[in-house]
Amino acid sequence: MTKNDKLRTLKTLAKRYARATAQPQHVALDFVANRLGFPHWNALAGKAKGEWAPSEAQVATMKAFVGRITSYEGMTFDHIFGGPDAITRGDVKGHSYELKTMLGDVSMEGDGWRIVLPENPLAAPRVEIDISHAQNSPMNDRVLLAEAVETAKALMQSVKARRFSDWPRRATKPDAGGKVHHPFLEMEESNLWYCLHCDGQCPSTWCRRPRAEPLA
Description:
By secondary structure, this protein is of the alpha+beta class. It has helices at 3-21, 25-35, 41-48, 56-70, 77-81, 142-165; strands at residues 82-92, 95-102, 105-110, 113-117, 126-129, 180-181, 189-190, 192-195, 200-203, 213-214. The termini are far apart.
C-alpha cells in the first residue's frame, strides 16, 4: 500500500466514523489524526508531505477501531426502537446481564441491579440497585461498574450507527447555523427540536426521532 493509498484509507475511515457518530467530517479527521499522535488532521497531512507515512500497522489498527465503532452487524429493527427480540446477554467479570433497548435508551439488567443509558448523550448513566442487594451488589465496585457502563455504551453506539446509516447526511451534519433536516420529514429544518420521547427541547445534534418536531 502506497503512502497515498494509506492517506485515502484514513480519510475513508474518518468519513465512516463521522457518519456513524453524527459528527462533522473535519472533527472525524482530527479524531483519526489524534489516534495517530497528531494534534489535528492538518498536522498529519503536513507531515505526510515529507518522508513520513502512516505504517501498515497504524492503518490496520485505525481500521479495526473504526470498525468497532461503526459496526451494527446483527442489529435489527428491534434493536433500534426496542422490542422483545432486542436482548443481548453476556457477563461482566462473571456477573450475568441482559442488554435491552427501548426508544433509543439502553438498559443493562443484572441480579438486583440495572444501568440505564438515556438516548440523550448529555445525560449521565443511571444506576439502580435493589434495596435487598444494596450491601453486596457488584455495582458497588467502581471498576466493575465502569466496565459495565462501557459495555452498554458499545451497544448504544451500534444502535446509533445503524440508525444513522439510513438517515440522509444532512440529518446528522448541521450547517453553519446548526440546522439539520429531519431524517424523515426532509422539508423540516431547525437547530432546536422538541421531542415527544424525552418531552423536552434538544439541540440539532441528537434526538431527531420520527416523533420529533421543530420548535416554532
